[in-house]
Amino acid sequence: MQVIATSIPDVLILAPKVFGDARGFFLESFNAQTFKASTGLDVQFVQDNHSRSGRGVLRGLHYQLHQPQGKLVRVVQGEVFDVAVDMRRQSPTFGQWAGAHLSADNQRQLWVPPGFAHGFVVLSDTADFLYKTTDYYAPQHEACLQWNDPTVGVDWPLATPPSLSAKDQQGLSWSDAPKFD
Ligand SMILES: Cc1cn([C@H]2C[C@H](O)[C@@H](COP(=O)(O)OP(=O)(O)O[C@H]3O[C@@H](C)C(=O)[C@@H](O)[C@H]3O)O2)c(=O)[nH]c1=O
């Protein structure tokens, strides 16, 4: 597995080794030993999620203030632009964002550490988005940072306004969004 840096040192792109042959391909989508050896991170995943979305759907930017979730995310059908925003006050990259194109074709994964808000926009007709999390879903602790907050200034690759859930239309501004101390 190859580890590729992003603009935020704690956010990593992982490129699994792909074994192609006449039948198709094989890859290890997660291997605890390889993950630890490649990233130096000792994390335990407790939940696997799968969402499907249509073109132009934007989910995010989500985080849990208590029970923060580290997320290992990937796309098995389609393409998204995936974003992580550092919500940790003590971090040298506090308030910064990092993004990566993840697709079924490039087979890349993104490691989004606990303490980050996370979201993605779908760039294909549909996208199947799979992710592992280091803590359980806890809706009572959920928070949503507004996807287009001007202070954060994520450069989404969007020509038209995205489709958002009712919840994501109520995302908080950077100044109002709770942070990790
Ligand atoms: C995230 C999640 C949702 N749900 C339920 C709640 C709700 O009825 C339905 C849809 O939930 P949401 O609208 O919150 O789903 P969604 O907008 O896809 O939320 C996800 O967005 C991405 C960007 C993330 O980073 C994830 O952590 C998660 O917040 O699924 C669970 O049962 N377990 C879960 O872990």
From TrEMBL:
SUPFAM superfamilies: RmlC-like cupins. GO terms for cellular component: cytosol. The active site is at residues 62, 131. Residues 160-181 are annotated as: Disordered. It comes from Methylophilus medardicus. One of its GO terms (biological process) is polysaccharide biosynthetic process. This is dTDP-4-dehydrorhamnose 3,5-epimerase. It catalyses: dTDP-4-dehydro-6-deoxy-alpha-D-glucose = dTDP-4-dehydro-beta-L-rhamnose. Keywords: Isomerase. The gene is rfbC. It holds the Pfam family dTDP_sugar_isom.
